[in-house]
Amino acid sequence: MAAEKSAVDPTGTWKLATINAETKAKSPERTLKLKLEGGKLTGTIDGRSSINGKVKLFEWPIKDTKLQGNDIAFTVTHAPVAGTGPDSTTTYEGRITGDAMKGTAETEWSGNTIKRDFEARRIKD
Questions:
Q1: pLDDT tens, 89-111?
Q2: Which of 44, 60, 62, 100 has a CA between 20 and 30 Å from the CA of residue 107?
Q3: Per-domain residue ranges for the chain?
């Protein structure tokens, strides 16, 4: 989607963590790579799984991107990182202030919805 009248350029590498609503514990950081070019926002987010000591790394494209002013939104859909089952879809909606981003992440999987806060920081490449 076109980014209209955006006050910010989110291009760069971000370290993003979700926050457990009950314990306030942060998840391991994920790498979010964003690029704003020609009014279009694209990017990827990574993931990992560790089963029986074996680590697998994943990288998924973001879609349904929106950037208006300082507000950003995007969706990530992927197959299960372990085993089989339905795809998982997470919608991120947040606000960018300088090199910081905060918002909510809502994940839908197998009929369940989990909503968490997230925060991210842009890192220098």
A1: 999 999 999 999 999 999 988 88
A2: 100
A3: 12-123
